[in-house]
Amino acid sequence: MKTIRNELLEIAYLDDEPKHGEPILTLHGWPHSPTGFEEISSHLHEAGFRTIAPFLRGIPYAFFMGSRGTCPNVLGRVRPR
Q: Of 13, 27, 61, 73, which residue is 20 to 30 A from 54 by alpha carbon distance?
C-alpha cells in the first residue's frame, strides 16, 4: 500500500492499473473505506482509467503524525482564525 505524507498527515491510498490511464480520484465517506469502490473501479480499469482512492481521516491508515509519535504537538499548532 502506498502512502503520502506531509508535516501533519500520513495517508495510505490505493493506486490501481492501468498506470498510464487517465486518473480518477475516488473519495469515500465515513464509515466506509476505499475498498468500497472495488466493483466500480474494476469497470473503470477495463475502460482504461487509473483509480486513486485515499484512506481518508477516521479510517485506519490515515494518521495525524502526532498520533504515531513522529510529529509532537501537532494539535497545539492548529489555531482557529
A: 73
| Euclidean distance between CA atoms 54 and 26, whole angstroms | 8
Confidence label for 68 from pLDDT (cuts 50, 70 and 90): low
What 3-state class would DSSP assign to 10?
strand
pLDDT per position as a tens digit, 13-55: 999 988 899 999 998 877 788 888 888 999 999 999 999 999 8
Neighbours of 80 (CB within 10 A): 3
Q: Are 11 and 4 in contact (CB under 8 A)?
A: yes
- Rounded CA separation 55/51 (Å): 13
CA angle 28, 41, 24 (to 5 degrees): 70
Helix (H) or strand (E) holding 12: strand 9-16
Pairing between strand 49-54 and 22-25? parallel
